[in-house]
Design brief:
By secondary structure, this protein is of the alpha+beta class. The protein folds into three domains: 47 residues, no CATH class; 121 residues, CBS-domain (Roll); 84 residues, Uridine Diphospho-n-acetylenolpyruvylglucosamine Reductase, domain 3 (2-Layer Sandwich), CATH 3.30.465.10. The chain has ten helices and twelve strands. The longest helix is centred in the N-terminal third of the chain and has 27 residues. The protein is globular and about 65 Å long.
Length: 302
C-alpha cells in the first residue's frame, strides 16, 4: 500500500499540471468560442483546479455578457415609489416601512419619473428638525433611463463609471417598464447579496403577520409543512424552492407568482439559476406589493 501512494500522488500532480497547462493555453487565445472555454472550465472544476465558488462567478460573469436588463429588472408593478405631492409623514412612512435606500419619485403616474430620492438625503432635514416644509424637489437626484434591451455588462460598466446605483427601465414606447440596481447585476455574478429582505442565517421563515411570511427557497419541505400546516411531499424535492420551480416550469423572474394548493407564492428574489426568496400568503390574501400596485393604479385613473 505504501508503495502505491507515491504513484497515485504523481498521477494526480500530472493531471493537475495538464489542466493548468490547458487553462494557460485557453488564456493565450487558443480557444475559438465560449463553448470551448466552458468545456475547459467545467473539466477544471471537476478536477478541483478551481473551486465551486470561483467557477460560479466565472460562469455568472460570462452569462452577464449575454443577458439583457429585461431579464433581471424589477417590474413596474413591484416598484416602490414616492409621490411628489406626498406629505413628510407619508414619505417617512414609506421609507421606513420598505427599508430601501433609493426611491423613484413620480408625478401623476409611474410613467412620470421626476427623479431619485436617496433616503440619506432626508437625514439633514430630520436632524435639523426644521419647521420649514420639506421641498422634496430640492433634494432629488437625476433619474437615469435605460432601454430594456441594454446588455448587463454594458450597464455594469456605466454604473461603475457614473457611480450611479439605480436606473429606470423604459420600453420601446417610452413607458416605464421597471427598474434595476447595481446589486441586481452583481448578484448575477457573485450570487445572492444580503439586503433588506434578509433575516438570520439560521432562520428559514420570517412571519410578518398571520397571513404573510417571507420564506427562503432552501427551506426544507418538512419545516415548511410544519409551519404552514401543508402536506407537500418530500419524495421528489427537498426544498420549497424546488416545489415552486416545478410548478412554474422554469426559473422565474422577480415578481412572478404561482398558486399551489391554498397558498400563493411570489418570487421576491431569484437569479438566472435558482429561486432565492419567496413571499407566501393564502390565496384569498393580497400581497403587500400587490396592494401598493393597486393603490397606485387607482390614483392613476382619471
Amino acid at each position: 500500500m505504501s508503495e502505491e501512494q507515491p504513484a497515485n500522488s504523481d498521477k494526480e500532480v500530472k493531471t493537475q499540471r495538464s489542466w493548468i497547462e490547458r487553462l494557460g493555453q485557453a488564456l493565450q487565445g487558443e480557444l475559438k468560442d465560449r463553448e470551448q472555454l466552458m468545456v475547459v472550465l467545467n473539466e477544471a472544476h471537476k478536477n478541483n483546479i478551481i473551486d465551486h465558488e470561483a467557477f460560479s462567478m466565472i460562469d455568472g460573469a460570462m452569462q452577464v455578457a449575454e443577458m439583457q436588463v429585461r431579464d433581471i429588472m424589477l417590474p413596474r408593478s413591484q416598484m416602490i415609489v414616492l409621490e411628489m405631492d406626498s406629505t413628510e409623514e407619508e414619505l417617512m412612512d414609506t421609507v421606513i416601512t420598505s427599508a430601501h435606500s433609493r426611491f423613484p419619485v413620480v408625478g401623476d403616474s409611474k410613467d412620470e419619473i421626476i427623479g431619485i430620492l436617496l433616503a440619506k438625503d432626508l437625514l439633514p432635514h430630520l436632524i435639523n428638525d426644521s419647521e420649514e416644509k420639506l421641498q422634496i424637489r430640492d433634494i432629488l437626484r437625476p433619474a437615469v433611463f435605460i432601454p430594456e434591451s441594454k446588455r448587463l455588462n454594458v450597464l455594469l460598466k456605466e454604473f461603475r463609471s457614473t457611480r450611479n446605483h439605480i436606473a429606470i427601465v423604459v420600453d420601446e414606447y417610452g413607458g416605464v417598464a421597471g427598474m434595476v440596481t447595481i446589486e441586481d447585476v452583481l448578484e448575477q455574478i457573485v450570487g445572492e447579496i444580503e439586503d433588506e429582505h434578509d433575516f438570520d442565517e439560521d432562520t428559514f421563515i420570517f412571519e410578518h403577520s398571520k397571513d404573510r411570511a417571507t420564506v427562503k427557497a432552501v427551506t426544507p419541505i418538512e419545516d415548511f409543512n410544519e409551519h404552514f400546516k401543508t402536506t407537500f411531499s418530500g419524495n421528489e424535492f427537498d426544498t420549497i424552492g424546488g416545489i415552486v420551480m416545478n410548478a412554474l416550469g422554469h426559473v422565474p423572474k422577480r415578481g412572478e407568482t404561482v398558486a399551489i394548493d391554498k397558498l400563493e407564492f411570489k418570487i421576491l428574489r431569484s437569479s438566472n439559476r435558482r429561486i432565492n426568496l419567496l413571499e407566501v400568503y393564502p390565496i384569498e390574501v393580497t400581497s403587500v406589493t400587490d396592494n401598493e400596485a393597486t393603490e397606485s393604479a387607482d390614483v392613476e385613473q382619471p
